[in-house]
Amino acid sequence: MDIYLYNTLTKKKEQFIPLNPKEVKIYSCGPTxxxxxxxxxxRTNIFQDxxxxxxxxxxxxxxxxxxxxxxxxxxxxxxxxxxxxxxSAREENKTPQEIAEHYTKLFFEDLKSLNIETPxxxxxxxxxxxxxxxxxxxxxxxxxxxxxxxxxxFDVSKLDKYGILSGINLEExxxxxxxxxDKEKKNPYDFALWIKAPQNHIMKWDSPxxxxxxxxxxxxxxxxxxxxxxxxxxxxxxxDLIPTxxxxxxxxxxxxxxxxxxxxxxxxxxxxxxxxKMSKSLGNVYLLKDIIQKGYNPLVYKLFSYSCHYRNKxxxxxxxxxxxxxxxxxxxxxxxxxxxxxxNVEEDVxxxxxxxxxxxINDDLNMPLAMxxxxxxxxxxxxxxxxxxxxxxxxxxxxxxxxxxxxxNNTQIPEEIIKLAExxxxxxxxxxxxxxxxxxxxxxxxxxxxEDTKDGYKLNKK
Length: 462
Ligand code: AMP
Ligand code: ZN
Prior knowledge:
Rossmann fold, 462 residues, five-stranded parallel β-sheet, binds zinc ion, binds adenosine monophosphate, alpha/beta, 44% helix, 3 domains
């Protein structure tokens, strides 16, 4: 069955035809490992996981590369401010390596909790410095880069067109161009490939231009080319990467080898919180850990994200998570009921559902539509293991582990509730039954039940 994907480059849904008919090559811009990944970051990772799984459903092998940015991503994407890794290291009183290790580990734990497949190749920027130096050399040789006293810059005026992904018009932008930090830059949109490190800068490497550190964009171009070649099939990332990071990757690749690195560019939209931005100042930055601590299976968040197409904004609410938690239970229950069923179902019926699901996922990963078919199968009044098998097949895309029974345990109960339970235990030991009853009521109001057992107590979500 044909696959259609929306390509940011052409702004159209296009039939997907890989360069190699058997293996699809994908590059995803990975995390900058200087802080906890939020559920917003995870939305982008879920979208990328769905892409992989859909391609596999269609019989393709995948070679998927994801980088880990552990140097060079400055506070502003436009080459300004401090390196995010160094800032975080300073604030947490750790070395940049410790920061990178810590947040990389947490990032992969989140992927595992969400049953997101690990890309075939994970590559760290700091382990690819020689490849980046070669790339910068090539850009200088080809006349696309120049040196100033602070950096090696890419000269955007040398390109036939800069801005093909975001549709930016440089002529129009020039009038309102901001005041440049580096007066030696030839054009406002020139960006740093390689930055000369000040004396006291911790992360720096020897290079033909002295002790330097890489710009963020060159990392992806150098690693993409190393593992996937000059041109590959799909490049993915969050929507915010379009105007600067991906535009600059395209510029670098055109300068180095005359090609746009990927044929299809796919971008995931943002997750909103209660209709607005997630931000520290609003105190609404949620991590996957917060969902788990409230007692939810993390896969509830994955299912929640299927309620919206990846190119639309998704609004996160705790009510939505609560409702989706019940949906996940119903889905698992529906699978079990079919598994135990004995009704007879013709192959044709199965095929019709399968085709509907397949068509939906092949239509630019239309998960809300695909879920419609999943629910139709769950709700079938005839109960048959054939439907259970079909749901398992769908689950190779959904990745919701529908055949695993839900376990409720104390590790998923929030700290706050556990503390109340401990306090109640203390009151019981002191035979303060009034206090114990009061706390039980408080726990109930917060959505949990507490049973007394011979070993102490057992908490459950209501
Ligand atoms: P950041 O940690 O803000 O640098 O984000 C890393 C990447 O995660 C970004 O480049 C985005 O592509 C993605 N991302 C960040 N916030 C969100 C969000 N609220 N929704 C979806 N994706 C996001
Ligand atoms: Zn990138």
